[in-house]
Write a structure and sequence with these properties.
The chain is of the alpha/beta class. It has two domains: 4-321, Metal-dependent hydrolases (TIM Barrel); 323-352, no CATH class. The protein has helices at 17-26, 38-46, 52-63, 71-84, 107-125, 146-157, 179-191, 223-227, 232-237, 246-251, 261-271, 282-285, 289-298, 304-316, 327-335, 337-346; strands at 4-10, 88-95, 133-141, 163-169, 199-200, 217-220, 241-244, 274-277. It has a four-stranded parallel β-sheet. α5 (107-125) links the parallel β2 and β3. The protein is globular. The two termini are 18 Å apart.
C-alpha cells in the first residue's frame, strides 16, 4: 500500500544510474565512451560534490538526454520505481520545460514547444498499473532571461490539469543581482492564483528574505533555523512548509554530517514550523524516500513521532493531493467501516 508523499523531486535528478546508463547504451550516446564501464559511471553520477554549483552541473547532463521523445521512457521507470520501491501515493515532479527543448532553436520556438513538454510529462505520469497521484511544478531558472521565466509562469497558469505550482532553480546563491526581477515574477504568479515554492535558504549565500512573502512552501530552507532562527515565528504564522532533502546537503557540501540536521528539525518543531522530508534528486543520490526516513532515524536526528509529523505535513502541504487525509488514514477507515463512513461523509472526494 502506497503511503508516502514526495514534494520535492527534480525530473532531471530522478533518473537512477542504471536506467540512465542503459538508455545511453541503447542510443549509442557518446557519453558512454567516457567511462570504462557502469561502475565508473555510477561513481561519477552519484559521488558527492564540493559545491552546489558543481553538483547542479549534473543536471545539464540529464537535461540534454530528456528530449520530448525520451521523456516517456524515463518517466515510466521513475513511476514504477516510486510505486514499487518507495510506496509513494503522491509525487510532485519539478523541472524547467525550456531546458527540454532543442537548444539549436530560437528562443521563441523553444517557448512554443514547452507546452508539448508539459503535456508529454503529464500524460506519461498517468499510469493505471502504478496509481500515484502526480503533478508538475515548473521551474523558472537563474540562467534564463526574464521573458522565458515569465513564459514558464504563463505556461503553468494555462496547464492546471498537469501543473500544480512554480519554483525557481539554478542555485539560490545566484539570485542576488536579479532579485527585483524574481520578486516581480513571483508576485505575478500569485496574482494568477498559482501555488508557489522556491529554492531558498539552502546555502549560506541563498538567504533572500525578499522572496519569503511570495512562497507557500520553501525549497530546503535549512539556513533559516541554522542561521536566522528569528524568522521561524514568521514562517510558522504564514503556515509555510520547509521541503527538507537530507542527502542533498551532504552531496553538495552544504553540511558536513547529517547530524547537523538535528538543529534544523529541533528548532522547527519547537517553533511550530511544518517540514516535509523529500528526496530532491533520488537518482543522483541513488537514495529512495524510505531510506531518507531511515537515515534520519538511525542517526537520531528525529524520532518516530517527529517522522510521522513530517509525513503528515507532506500531504497537508501537497499542492494537488485531492483527499482530506493521508493514505494511512483512508486505509484505517477501510479496515474499520464505521471510521470509513465518517471519513467519506466529511470528504466525499475520497470515496470516488
Amino acid at each position: 500500500m502506497a503511503l508516502y508523499a514526495d514534494l520535492h523531486r527534480h525530473l532531471g535528478g530522478s533518473v537512477v544510474p542504471r536506467v540512465l546508463w542503459r538508455y545511453l547504451q541503447r542510443n549509442d550516446s557518446q557519453l558512454v565512451d567516457q567511462f570504462p564501464g557502469y561502475a565508473e559511471f555510477e561513481d561519477f553520477y552519484t559521488r558527492p560534490r564540493n559545491t552546489l554549483d558543481e553538483y547542479l552541473e549534473l543536471h545539464t547532463l540529464v537535461e540534454g538526454v530528456q528530449t520530448v521523445e525520451a521523456l516517456p521512457y524515463f518517466i515510466y521507470r521513475l513511476m514504477r520505481g516510486a510505486y514499487i520501491f518507495e510506496n509513494l501515493a503522491y509525487l510532485e515532479l519539478r523541472y524547467t520545460p525550456y531546458l527540454r527543448t532543442p537548444a539549436h532553436l530560437s528562443q521563441s520556438e523553444r517557448i512554443d514547444l514547452m507546452t508539448e513538454i508539459v503535456q508529454v510529462v503529464g500524460q506519461a505520469s498517468q499510469l493505471n498499473e502504478y496509481p500515484i497521484v502526480t503533478s508538475q511544478i515548473l521551474c523558472m531558472h537563474v540562467r534564463l532571461p526574464y521573458e522565458v521565466n515569465r513564459a514558464i509562469v504563463d505556461l503553468a497558469a494555462h496547464n492546471r490539469d498537469y501543473v500544480c505550482g512554480i519554483d525557481i532553480a539554478g542555485g539560490d546563491n545566484h539570485y542576488g543581482e536579479r532579485m527585483e526581477e524574481f520578486v516581480r515574477l513571483y508576485a505575478y504568479a500569485r496574482s494568477l492564483g498559482l501555488n508557489t515554492t522556491g529554492h531558498l535558504y539552502e546555502t549560506r549565500d541563498g538567504c533572500h528574505a525578499e522572496l519569503l512573502p511570495y512562497l507557500m512552501r520553501i525549497g530546503h530552507g535549512i539556513q533559516i533555523p541554522l542561521q536566522q532562527p528569528q524568522l521561524l515565528k514568521q514562517i510558522a504564522e504564514q503556515k509555510q512548509c520547509l521541503e527538507i532533502c537530507p542527502t542533498t546537503y551532504l552531496k553538495t557540501g552544504t553540511l558536513d554530517d547529517i547530524s547537523q540536521l538535528k538543529h534544523v528539525f529541533d528548532r522547527c518543531f519547537e517553533a511550530g514550523v511544518d517540514m516535509a522530508i523529500c528526496t530532491d534528486n533520488a537518482g543522483l543520490h541513488n537514495v529512495r524516500l524510505p531510506f531518507e526516513y531511515e537515515n534520519l532515524l538511525t542517526h537520531d536526528v528525529i524520532g518516530f513521532e517527529q517522522l510521522q509529523a513530517c509525513q503528515d505535513a507532506a500531504f497537508k502541504h501537497a499542492f494537488a493531493w485531492p483527499y482530506g487525509q493521508r493514505p494511512a488514514s483512508l486505509l484505517n477507515g477501510l479496515l474499520h467501516p464505521e471510521i470509513s463512513k465518517s471519513v467519506f461523509e466529511k470528504h466525499p472526494a475520497s470515496a470516488k
